[in-house]
Write the structure tokens for this entry.
Amino acid sequence: DIQMTQSPSSQSASVGDRVSITCRASQHINTYLNWYQQKPGKAPRFLIYGASNLQSGVPSRFSGSGSGTDFTLTISSLQPEDIATYFCQQSFTSPPTFGQGTKVEIK
Amino acid sequence: QVQLQESGPGLVKPSETLSLTCTVSGDPMNNYYWNWIRQPPGKALEWIGYIYYGASTNSNPSLKGRATISIDTSKNQFSLKLTSVTAADTAVYYCARQSYTSGWKPFDYWGQGTLVTVSS
């Protein structure tokens, strides 16, 4: 199975800060990388597909980049409603696998 | 708006069978893959398996054949049975829709999850 490793595991930032989360795959996955947001007690929300394509309705402050093994999710200006855990997922090969998550908190 | 809702017992005894159902509303079930995903406490999400509306299935080899997924499109539901459970199967279980339209196969809609504890 492809292992997905996220860093950091948690991040504290101020409102308006730029926040970046890294996801690394244990082998090449082209751009078969999706990102999700999860708030406590809520269903996970699909944010980005194909490493850099924003899902409809997702605010433009979210962006994704990368290909191969290294990927980044960026929030350009952190808002209070962005407090959540973010996780990546590879869809290059079965079984699909997920990163362990990055918890974003307000400083 | 597509919505998914998991239902089933929150407590299962060791060696017994875990049974969950996901009810889908807001969109027909055809042309999508319907998945079960779980998250043990403190661990990453783990894909369990899927069923296509035409009833083809696939599951994670790590479960060694213990997972069975079925679908009832007349009720807009799909279900998971996981046999011979142990404490290691304690997790929050999610159902999720998967779209193959884009080629990147994201899980585009999820249920909010249900905690299943395996304990005597």
User: Anything to note?
Assistant: Residues 97 and 109 of chain B are 5 Å apart (CA to CA). The mean pLDDT of chain B is 95.
